Amino acid sequence: MRILVVEDSLVAAMALEEELEERLHQVRIAGSLRGAREWMAEERYDAALLDMHLPDGPSDALAAELERAGCIVALVSGIDAGDVPSTLEHLPLFQKPIQPAILASWIDSLLQPD
C-alpha cells in the first residue's frame, strides 16, 4: 500500500516509516499540510495517518481532501476523542504516544478480507 504519514515529529514519523517499510508498504512523510499537499499532487495514497495539529494548521481539511480522493484516513494525535472536529468523528483515532507497530498492524488489517 502507498501510505502518507503527516507528522511534524520527525523522530515519530521516521519510526513509523521504518515499521511500515519493513511490512513492504511504500511510505511518504510530510511534516506539514503544505508538504502533504505537495506529495498528494504527485501520487495517490491508499491510506494516510494524520497528526491533527501541524505547524501550518489543523489537518481536518486535509483529511477531507484525502477521503474525497478515496484514501483511508486515520488520526494520530494527543487530543481526546471529544476534541475531534465533528466532521472527523467517523475516522479512527489513535492516541499518542503510540507504538509504530500498532499503527502498522492497523494498516495491515486494511489488506485483510472482511
Helix-strand layout with pairing:
Layout: E1 2-6, H1 10-22, E2 26-30, H2 33-42, E3 47-50, E4 53-54, E5 57-58, H3 60-68, E6 72-77, E7 93-95, H4 100-109
Parallel strand pairs: 1-2, 1-3, 3-6, 6-7
Antiparallel strand pairs: 4-5
Task: Kindly describe this structure.
It is a single chain. The chain has 114 residues and is of the alpha/beta class. It contains 4 helices and 7 strands; from the N terminus they run βαβαβββαββα. The strands form 2 sheets. A 5-stranded parallel β-sheet has the order 2-1-3-6-7. The protein has a two-stranded antiparallel sheet with strand order 4-5. A hairpin with a 2-residue loop joins β4 and β5. α1 (10-22) crosses α4 (100-109). The radius of gyration is 13 Å and the shape is globular. The model has no long low-confidence stretch (mean pLDDT 95).
Provide a concise account of the structure shown.
The chain is an alpha/beta fold and 114 residues long.
In percent, how helical is the residue content? 25-40%
Shape designation: globular
Q: Name the helix and strand elements from N-terminus to C-terminus, one letter apiece.
A: EHEHEEEHEEH
Helix tally?
4
Average pLDDT score = 95
Q: What is the domain tally?
A: 1
Instruction: Count all strands and give the number.
Output: 7
